[in-house]
Amino acid sequence: MSDHVTPPHLTDHGEHALPDDSHTTSAAKIMFGWTSKPWAGRVVFLVLALASLCLVLLEPLLEASAEEGHHFRHTYFNIDSITAFHAWWGFGSFALVVLAGWPLGRLLRRSEDYYDDEAEPAGEEPHA
């Protein structure tokens, strides 16, 4: 009996065959095998969230420990000096790009039958 559990997002619902890992090296299984576990996404998210929180909390401490006349940050605008400004700026930029992608996708999207041609089925040459 195998202790391998297939994550729900990798189960075969009839449309795709599960990958055959017989060609996967043991080193690759050791280094990257954890990525197919059901808990992997949650752990990566929590680690990144914890690292971000630690960096945001460390920022005021580094600013306070800077000597008089020396600045921890060299800002060009007053808004740059706000704690966690760059984190919020990055998140806002990311959100803007994602939200702008939806209308852009609708504008550029082709209909599902765009490439369908009833007269010439795919893979056949037209008769001359």
Provide the residue-averaged pLDDT. 80
Q: Name the beta content range.
A: under 5%
Give the biggest sheet: none
| Strand and helix order | HHH
Q: Explain this structure to me?
A:
The longest helix is centred in the middle third of the chain and has 26 residues, at 40-65. The protein is built from three helices and no strands. The mean pLDDT is 80. Helices cover 45% and strands 0% of the residues. By secondary structure, the chain is mostly helical. It is flat and about 85 Å long. It has helices spanning 26-32, 40-65, 85-108.
Write a compact overview of the structure shown.
This protein is mainly α and 128 residues long.
Architecture blueprint of SSEs:
Blueprint: H1 26-32, H2 40-65, H3 85-108
Which features characterize this protein?
about 130 residues; mainly alpha; 3 helices
